[in-house]
Amino acid sequence: MSAVNRRTVNPDLHWFRNSPPSQCVEIIVRDNGPGIAPQYIDKIFDPFFSTKKMSDKKGSGLGLTVVYNIVKNHHGAILVKSDEGKGTAFHIFLPAVEYSSEPATGDAVAQYRARNNELVLLVDDDEGMQILGKELLEDNGYRVLVASGGMQAIELLEQHKEEVALVILDLVMPVLDGGQTYLRMKKVKPDLKAFFCSGFVTDSLISNLLAEEHLTAIQKPFKSEQFLKFVHTTLTK
To answer: Which residues of the chain have pLDDT under 70?
Structure first.
């Protein structure tokens, strides 16, 4: 069982050491599970950290790491409170800003619509991203193939390599990550056009891959217009 609450608070300066905001938004996520042992609290945001046995693990082991990086990139902080046998609460603090910009107009998005009903291969192990990405692309005139992992993506490219105009890859995936998948795909289609989506764009290994392969990456989370601009720009290179 879980609950999500949010409120606007005056922040404790302890949680915002650099340029603390005058106000922040607090998002609280609670559960009534077994809780987290005190010795593990400082490790839960480490990549692949888990107290579960390998046979019991589900997912990539990167969920909390992704959350941490997204919050950090938005100049926020996370406080974890846990009672063993009672549950855990995650307090996420994000700087509050006043909404003042105008929403994107139809004309702004229209300039990035598909020109020739191009086929895009979307590769992401997150089901939510698969659904949202596919819907956004199809709503703007693109045809879409979806793969939930690297091996499936390679198989789809082999089957449709003459049609696939663009591949959009998540960087962090189990078995084959986005970088490994891209390098294998290039053997199938040497002139492959692609870009990456990730919450880890600033990682040094990823930065090296992008530089070596002359690729770009969009930071999660992103706006629809920003995503479509990446699609359009990569296709027209």
So the answer is: 1-22, 48-62, 99-107, 200-206
- Rounded Cα distance between 114 and 142, Å, is 6
Is the domain 106-235 a CATH 3.40.50.2300 member?
yes
pLDDT computed for residue 50 by the predictor: 62
Cα separations (Å) of 136 from 8, 143, 223? Answer: 31, 11, 11
Please provide residue 48's backbone torsions phi and psi, each rounded to the nearest 5 degrees: 70, 5
Q: What is the CATH number of domain 2-95?
A: 3.30.565.10
61: exposed, middle or buried (C-beta count within 10 Å: 0-12, 13-18, 19+)?
middle
CA 213 to CA 68: how far, in whole Å? 28
What are the φ and ψ backbone dihedral angles of 75, each rounded to 5 degrees?
60, 40
Query: pTM of the prediction?
Result: 0.62
